[in-house]
Amino acid sequence: MKRGVYAMRPTLKRVLWGGNRLQKHYGKDAPATDLVGESWEVSTAAGMESCDISSGISLAALWATERAHLAGPEATGDFPLLVKLLHCEQVLSVQVHPNDEQAMAISGARCGKLEAWLVLEAPSAGYIYFGLAPGKTSNDLVAALSLGPSAVSACLQQLRVKAGEVWIVEPGTVHAPGPGLVLFEVQQPSDLTYRVYDWGRCDVHGQERPLHLAQALQVMNGPAPQTAQATLDATKSTQCLADTSAFHIEHWTVNGLKTALVQHMTVLHMLEGCGRISAMGDSIELRKGSTCLVPRGATIARIEGEGLRLAAITAPRSFLR
Fold first, then answer.
1. Does domain 6-229 have CATH number 2.60.120.260?
2. Pairwise CA distance, residues 263 & 44, whole Å
3. Average pLDDT value for residue range 117-129
4. What residues does each domain of the chain span?
5. DSSP secondary structure, 235-292, as one string
6. Are 212 and 169 in contact (CB under 8 A)?
7. In this structure, what are the phi and psi dihedrals at residue 74, rounded to the nearest 5 degrees?
8. How far apart are CA 283 and CA 54, in angstroms?
9. Which of 102, 121, 134, 277 is the most exposed place for a label (fewest CB within 10 A)?
């Protein structure tokens, strides 16, 4: 049944580096004792599909049957986005992602992984590892792997981050979010990750996670930009946070009523506040941490509330073919 708005139920991922902030502060349904690191808000990935709360139908199934309604009659490709929340209780593994051509050549995957992070929470000394340190090469990083965490850290560019910043992680940029961060992540629909170093972590069985050094070295670039792409400004009613070849992210502030012309399939994630969105006679509640999908067929959506802040994500039409 075609609807004007679909409220998404995410799939949660328990990981070694996760914590409980997604349960406590973003409404995710899991015991507080679980180490939840990822909430896959909008996903068609096998085993990690999000679903429409009202019908229980997975987004993958909706895409198969309602693609023209969701994204327009020209949409013939795979679902173009993957949207997550991350809680990094510990530093993540040092990793790198391929671009589209490299993903196909190395792993036979349909696309690579360009991603963006909106920092939702960061401690006062919050940081990310982002690219190789100036003067360091991939060979220096490889040599440091056997020397331990301090040697590895010295090969990476460590940058301070704060809430509201947007960082674009280009394929080839070696990276690792630091401890204490909560990130809203938008990316291409791929989880293809080449892990370089995992800080000596072991699972409950004493096993380390696999590394993918050979693949990583084929795609790794040098130093990355040292500044955020943008910083969120809550005083603006509409602000572009990221505009890439794979997705466009805006920040919307709503005080009262916003009538949005739906020209593209749009993912809306509630950053702050509580309100409602209505389209085609459907109406759902918006609350902090919730995500919904507004189909292109809705044409017009009405968002109501006070002090609402939302991230609005669209994909270019070229990614729907």
1. no
2. 22
3. 98
4. 6-229, 238-320
5. TSSEEEEEE-SS-EEEEEEEEEEEEEE--S-EEEEEEE-EEEEEETTEEEEEETT-EE
6. no
7. -85, -5
8. 11
9. 134
Residue 172: name the closest of 99, 233, 103 by CA.
99
Q: Are 103 and 190 in contact (CB under 8 A)?
A: yes
CB neighbours (10 Å) of residue 159?
20
- Alpha-carbon distance 84 to 106, whole Å? 25
Return d(Cα 10, Cα 216) in angstroms, integer: 29
Pull the structure tokens for residue 214: 């050979």
- C-alpha distance across the termini of the chain, in Å: 23
Contact 85, 289 (CB under 8 A): yes
Q: Is 308 helix (H, G, I), strand (E, B) or coil?
A: strand
Q: Evaluate whether 6-229 and 238-320 have a shared fold.
A: yes
Please answer whether residues 290 and 318 qualify as being in contact, where contact means their C-beta atoms are separated by less than 8 angstroms. Answer: no
The predicted-structure confidence for 202-255, as pLDDT tens digits, reads as follows 887 888 899 999 999 999 998 899 999 999 999 999 999 999 999 999 999 999
The token pair at 226 is 């040292």
Q: What is the pLDDT of residues 41-97, one digit of tens each?
A: 999 999 999 999 999 999 999 999 999 999 999 888 899 999 999 999 999 999 999
pTM over 0.85: yes
Q: Which CATH class is domain 238-320?
A: mainly beta
